[in-house]
Amino acid sequence: MSYDMAATVGGSNRFGWRVFTGYRFTNYFAVHVGYTDLGEARSRLVDDPMEYAARMPSFERVRVQTVHGFDLGLQVKVPVSDRISIDAHGGKYFWQSNTRISGLRSEGYGEGDSRTSARDTDDFFGAGLEVAVMNDLSATLSWTRYQVDREPVSLWTVGVLYRFGFY
Fold first, then answer.
1. Torsion sign across C-alpha atoms 61, 122, 71, 131
2. Domains along the chain with CATH numbers
């Protein structure tokens, strides 16, 4: 006799954000340090009905995971025109994951709740587009793929980049 479980992911869309600062050595090369929050992912854990499942309690649980951390990276930028440039970036992501599994058990078996957390360092890489709006102000569109505990997470960002000039 076995009692199998299946995990279903409710969706791949979640709200994430990042903020960073850095130093541009040349017009083509920069180093960045930032904070990235990859948002909250929810999954449902449901039982797999079998012929023996009627003898066992049925239950449904929800897994909620949040991931956030600091990243350190390099950027290589290539100008396409006076106002438009593309970039490639990558580096290390120092992340922390918090996971909470909670759910209701039927047939009077009570509620279950467990929490775990993990920390590690993984790689990230991506590409972006920058359009100069004014001399020190640009609009950006970027895609970054983070690796979190062997799981890929893609983050699309639309942002504003301001350059502080020292004269």
1. negative
2. 5-162 (2.40.160.20)
Residue type present at position 150 = R
The pairing of strands 17-24 and 5-9 is: unpaired
Side-chain-facing half-sphere of 165: CA atoms under 13 Å = 4
Q: Which residue has the tokens 């350059």?
A: 163
- Cα–Cα distance for residue pair 27/138, rounded to 1 Å: 14
CA distances from 112 to 32, 103, 106, 107 (A): 42, 6, 11, 13
DSSP labels, 16-59: -EEEEEEEESSSSEEEEEEEEEEEEEEEEEEE---TTGGGS--E
Residue range 23-68, pLDDT digits in tens: 889 889 999 999 999 988 877 766 555 544 455 555 567 888 899 9
Write down the pLDDT at residue 15.
84
